[in-house]
Amino acid sequence: MIPPAELVARIKHRGLELGFQQVGITDTDLASAESRLLAWLAEGRQGTMDYMARHGVKRSRPADLVPGTVRVISVRMDYLPESHRAMQTALEDPPRAFISRYALGRDYHKLLRRRLQRLAEHILAEIGPFGYRVFVDSAPVLEKPLAEKAGLGWIGKHTNLIHPKAGSWFFLGEIYTDLALPIDTPLTDHCGRCRACIDVCPTRAIVAPYELDARLCISYLTIEHAGTIPEPLRPLMGNRIYGCDDCQLVCPWNRFARLAVEPDFQARQGLDTASLVELFGWDETTFLDRTQGSAIRRIGHIRWLRNIAVALGNAPASPEVKQALVSRADHPQALVREHVGWALERVG
Question: Active-site residues (predicted)?
Answer without folding.
Answer: 137 (proton donor)
